[in-house]
Amino acid sequence: MQKVMARPLADVEVLDVDRQSSGDHELDRVLGGGVVPGGVVLLGGEPGIGKSTLMLQAVLQMAVKMDRVLYVGGEESPEQVRMRAERLGTVPPNLYILPETNVQEVLKELEENKPGAVIVDSVQTLFLPEIESAPGSVSQIREAASALTRFAKQHQVPIFFIGHITKEGSLAGPKVLEHMVDVVLQFEGERHHAYRMLRAIKNRFGTTAELGLYEMQGNGLMAVEHPSHALLGQKIGEDGLSGTAIAAAIEGVRPMLVEVQSLVSTAVYGTPQRSGTGFDLRRLNMLLAVLEKRCGFKLASKDVFLNMAGGLRIQDPALDLAVVAAILSSALDVPLPWGTVFAGEVGLTGEIRPVPRLGQRVSEASRLGMKRMFHSAHARNIQIPEGSNMELVAIAQVSDLHGKLF
Ligand code: TYD
Ligand code: MG
Question: Is the pTM of this model over 0.70?
Fold first, then answer.
């Protein structure tokens, strides 16, 4: 056997990956520019969120350009898949379906008719007969996926594994595959809302900063071109109701205005309730504690509800300031004037911390006709896009917010 020698990294040839479009621009972008030959992708998300829809929609396009695309799985019958495909588009003749969950049988089919791409829906239904545990168990998932991954690498065939993940995210299953695959995508949203977000958690072929946005409609998932329009609940130009505030957020690389809605009311039953849709509950509790301690706002006996319009889970900490403003506005029952946006992180001492890329946030807010942006007084080197007449209101502490707002 030939010995593997160490060599200068600088001498290693840079290979141009030959990417192929999946036919879905949002998906392509999140993948880092398209499907990579031999690339193994795990698409995770809660049951019912739209994973099968997303992949089926993509393969209807992929199969147009490839010789053969194979949809494998035991989640739904071929008739069900066909019915759904009819709703989503035209079914190309070289899209094949294999309702098989035994990995050895799947491998036989792959060896015989090498497809250009494979979709497995879902990885939880696969099993290897030589392993005793039930399908869906950690060892089955791991072995089944690694057998197929070997095939993908050997034959340069891209494989997409769909995996169900529960809200807690950790329940035995697809999580065990994260280290083994090249790309981990997560499909998120509130089931009762139409918006969906596709993000990369890991990507060996590109950045994890790209973000895909979709709206679930009767005929499948449509790309959302202008997220701000979608995520602003109130009509542009009208004063909002009390309890709403607009955040200038950046998710991945996309700036977007997000409406934060809050309702503060006197708790009727003993323990006050706190709930957040699209927002981390621990973060909400932290912000409430800061308001209480640094502003002397008595919220301990209040119910506090928080909603992100559209139901998307935005992770940008710049949302904090809008959350605080929305809570103050609801508690005082005073609406915020039209045209006000917020971008700032709130620290434990109540200080408003600067957020990155303020210029981009200002551009997006200006584009949508916003007039004033509250941000951190601690920000340095602020670069405001030319031609913007956004009024910037710098605040250092949450306690200043009240005075400058009302
Ligand atoms: P699905 O892709 O089956 O979710 P997953 O594979 O993640 O479990 O789709 C979930 C829901 O999407 C389903 O309940 C119905 C809805 N849907 C639409 O609203 N429009 C459509 O065009 C399709 C295909 C599904
Ligand atoms: Mg499904």
Answer: yes
SS3 for 95-134, per residue? EEEECCCEHHHHHHHHHHCCCCEEEEECHHHCECCCCCCC
Q: Is the pLDDT of residue 277 over 70?
A: yes
Q: How far apart are CA 86 and CA 31, in angstroms?
A: 26
Domain boundaries, given as residue ranges, for the chain:
16-225, 230-405
CA of 192, nearest ligand number: 1
| Helix, strand, or coil (residue 367) | helix
CATH class of 230-405: alpha beta
Q: Whose CA is nearest to atom 22 of ligand 1?
A: 220
Nearest to residue 291, comparing CAs of 247, 341, 349, 336? 349
Cβ–ligand 1 contact at 193 (below 6 Å): no
The verdict on domain 16-225 having CATH code 3.40.50.300 is: yes
Report the atom number in ligand 1 closest to the C-alpha of 56.
2
Task: Return the structure tokens found at 266.
Answer: 């006197």
Residue 13 makes CB contacts below 8 A (sequence gap 6+) with none
Tell me the C-alpha distance between 143 and 128, whole Å: 7
List, for residues 197-216, the tens digit of each pLDDT value: 999 999 999 888 888 999 99
DSSP state letter for 268: S
Q: How far is CA 276 from CA 42, 263, 279, 345, 364, in A?
A: 28, 11, 5, 18, 26
Cα–Cα distance for residue pair 46/164, rounded to 1 Å: 5
